[in-house]
Every structure is written in structure tokens, then in C-alpha cells.
Amino acid sequence: GAVVSQHPSWVICKSGTSVKIECRSLDFQATTMFWYRQFPKQSLMLMATSNEGSKATYEQGVEKDKFLINHASLTLSTLTVTSAHPEDSSFYICSARDLRFEGSTNEKLFFGSGTQLSVL
Amino acid sequence: GEDVEQSLFLSVREGDSSVINCTYTDSSSTYLYWYKQEPGAGLQLLTYIFSNMDMKQDQRLTVLLNKKDKHLSLRIADTQTGDSAIYFCADGTYGGATNKLIFGTGTLLAVQP
User: Fold this and answer.
1) Cβ distance of B99 and A4 shorter than 8 Å
2) How are strands ordered across the β-sheet holding B4-6?
3) B34-76 pLDDT, tens per residue?
4) CB contacts, 8 Å: B94 with chain A
5) What gap in Å lies between CA A2 and CA A82, rounded to an integer?
6) What span, in angstroms and rounded, lies between the C-alpha atoms of B41 and B48?
């Protein structure tokens, strides 16, 4: 099946530093990728929709200057948490839709394995 | 906004059936999904059901949908220890750039040998 690689799997950083998380589609191309965050015992919350070659679309309440998204190619989207603080500690998951099925239902949406971010 | 709710935990014995329940609020839902999350792995799509269907069966998995009550369930027959994981239901709308998923809180299924 289709594979989405997310890197790193976990990261620990000091408060005030920036952290970049990569999401790659390995065997398909994706014009649309999604970034979620998940707090313990809570659901995955959609943060933003990453669009190749254009600006990301952020969900209400998500700071675009805090969570920078770059979707520079059809196989890579990055999420940068700028000036990270302890409250940004969370599990971040990306997903990518095979562009051959753009506009179709979500069965062609594939998820990365997630990144656990801990900010000290 | 849309909301999807699940119970947090379910424990069953190996060989028994498991039933995981989910309720949602969005009346415009087109498709409803069940995902499985194992430690260190991404979400894996298990099955999905179109909103005009009442039931869908796929090997050991049976999905029941009560659209009137906005209630979705996933039944796993002959549950195995390898089925232990977190199960998420998700509510999806159909169509283009607005096609996004709203997830429930996830149900941790623990299968006792």
C-alpha cells in the first residue's frame, strides 16, 4: 500500500527553539496534505491543509505564524513549530492524499506514523 | 461545529466479539470511517461506509450505521490479541478541497488472552 514517511518520530527541544517536521509521500504524489495534532486521550485535531505550490489553509484558532507549513513539492510538506513552548508539546500527524484521487473520498488518504514533540 | 464522540476504553477476551461505538453530529456527513492506530504506526484505514447504507461487512468487521440517531458502530468478530489498538471513527464530507476528516477521541481496545 501507499506509504507516508514522517520524520522525526520524536523530538525533544528547549523552549524558544524551532522544530521542523517532514511528511513525505514515498510512492505517490500529493497536492494536498493535512497536519493534525493529538493531545493525550483526545481526538486528532486538524490544524491545516497543506496545498502544493500555494499557501496552507489553517483551521480556526491555529496560529499560522506559529505553525509554518511549506508544501514545496508533490511529495513533501513540512511543518515548522516556531519558538516552541511547553504547551506545544503534542503528537503531530500528517496525512497525504494521492493526487490521482483528488476530490474523491478519503480511502486514498494515507497517514504518517506521527511525531511526538516534547518542549522542555 | 461537527463533533464525533467515542468511549475511551473497551476490554474483551480473546475470541469474543468487540463492539466499538461512535456518535456524530454532522447531518451532512457523506462517508464515515474507522481507523486503527497501533503504537508507533500511522493510522490505518480499516473500513468505511457511505451514509446511505445501513450495514457493511468486511471479513471480521461489521459496520452498522443508524443515520437517524447519528450512531456508528464497529463490530470485530473473534477478536484477537493483535486487534489491540486504538480505534478512531471519523466523519468525512465528500468533495474537493473541503474534503477533510473529523475524528473521534479514539477507543482503546484491550484484548485479554
Assistant:
1) no
2) B4-6, B18-24, B71-76, B61-66, B55-58
3) 999 987 777 888 998 988 889 999 999 999 999 999 999 999 9
4) 105
5) 30
6) 20
